[in-house]
Amino acid sequence: MQTVLAWGFGVLAVVCALLVFRLDSMARVTFALLASFLFVAFEVLLLGLNYLGVVLVLMTVMEMVIMAVFMVMYMMNPAGLVPMAMYHNRAGAMAVSVGTFCLLAAGTLLVDWPERVGRPVSDPTAELGAELMSSQMPTMMTLGMVLFAAILATVTLSMPRGRYDRFGGSPRGRPTDPVPGGLGPTTVSPGERR
Amino acid sequence: MRGGGSPVLETPLWWPAVLPVALGGFACGAVAFDSVLSARAGGTSSGRELLTPLRETVRSLVTQRRGTRAADTVLWRVGVAAVPVAALLAALVLPLGKYVVADPDVGIVWFNAAEILGWAAVWAAGWGANSVFSLVGGYRFVAQGLCYELPHMFALIAVATAAGTLRVGEVVEAQRNVWFVAWMPVAFVVYLISAAAMAFRAPFGAPVGTDLAGGAATELSGVDRLLFLAGRWLLFVVALAFSVPLFLGGGQGPLLPPWLWSVVKTAGVVTCVVWLSRRFPTVRVDRFAEFSWTVLLPASLLQVLVVSVMVLIR
Question: Which residues of chain A does B168 touch, with a Cβ-Cβ cutoff of 8 Å?
Fold first, then answer.
């Protein structure tokens, strides 16, 4: 049963991934990619990694919906109303992608997998985390904080209008916003400032 | 999925059949209560509002389905159907008293992952119709999602931190002495706000607002409309019902059997939130974004901090 499901999810994940290149609307392409990721998440669930599998579902749905917004915003022909293709430099791209797939697939078949010793642990997710990061835990924690600080700094630096544009000297009362919520033009004439 | 067993909750064979009926009953009750309040506010109350769920269901079923030109039918239909599906998937880990369909070791994360399917569902439903108002409604919901989701997740994290587990049954068990609502009132309020926003119910109904002629639901008709709107009420009821095991001690209480306590508490929460949500005007998404990121998010982070410190010194 598990084997059948694993093969089914695997085939469906690959089919959905191929659909990404066959469909011509950005919305459908994004949702095909989402479906492919979801089938991968189901594979992870089959491995008994409940937490990782469910978090994969959660993260991919969120990120693919946001991805859909950006794909529709930036790509040509978002609704698929005029012919277009997702691929460029067709021969080269095909060679690279099919070659990579074959290399990775061959790796899974040719590698000398170890025999199982003992029984699976009760909490494989925690075990996997410890195995991946045990000696590097402080590094990973610091890295997380640095990444978070980098995100905050990037958002702050890219804000078109900061606190002083909105509130003037003291952050009290309602801000002077041309567009509510702090967006809008970067500069405001001195007369508009408090 | 491994780890499906639960120490405190049980799954009778008949439960998966009864759960959707119970949820449907709650949703119908909520719709009826909402329309009674609506009629009383308009001064036209006559008692017939109690039949609103039945009448609207029948009306949707006999209405012919309209289409639009160049609609993306696949995404449209999938999006519409995914709203009730998301609600039912989330309900799989919702215990009512001692009964639950499944109590996996990652129950809280499962609930979060299922309910977030609503993002994809509403966006796809708004996009698929190939209509401006519907599209704007779909985008509004994504923006609203970015507002409510992080405070919502921190409210869930506060509960998981206090209970020391992600299994819903053990979360209920951890509230044997003190309900979590007493520990973490801020997380409870944040959770209720995010539940209303998640189901785009008033006052967070901007994605299907009247200023957009119905927003994401503009072009829906017939059975599509029924699925979408009933799914939205189901999502609302499931999200609110989940606050009972998370914050209100689940089925715990004196005298009455656990399932009845769960029903009473859920009905109480749904009634309060439906009544309260009519007290506020529709919140514009940009204002909600500002409120959410400058008030709700810091408040829920502080709540997590307080809970973590209390767990450490306990």
Answer: none
Inside any domain, residue B9? no
Per DSSP, the residues of B290-309 read HHIIIIIHHHHHHHHHHHHH
What is the C-alpha separation between A32 and A43, in angstroms, rounded? 17
Evaluate whether residue B7 is within a structural domain: no
The boundaries of the domain holding residue B161 are 15-313
CB contact B278 to A (< 8 Å): no
Q: Is B1 close to A180, i.e. CB distance below 8 A?
A: no
ipTM for the predicted complex: 0.87
In angstroms, rounded to a whole number, what is the distance separating the alpha carbons of residues B300 and B33?
A: 31
Give the tens place of pLDDT for each residue, B284-313: 888 888 889 889 999 999 999 999 999 998
Which conformational region is residue A89 in: left (phi greater than 0), alpha (psi within -120 to 50 degrees), or beta?
A: left
Per the CB < 8 Å rule, is B286 touching A180?
yes
- Check: CB of residue B155 under 8 Å from CB of residue B239: no
Q: Is any Cβ of chain A less than 8 angstroms from the Cβ of B69? A: no
Contact in structure between B88 and B139 (CB atoms under 8 Å): no
**Residue spans per domain, chain A:** 1-78, 136-167
**A93 touches B: beta carbon within 8 Å:** no
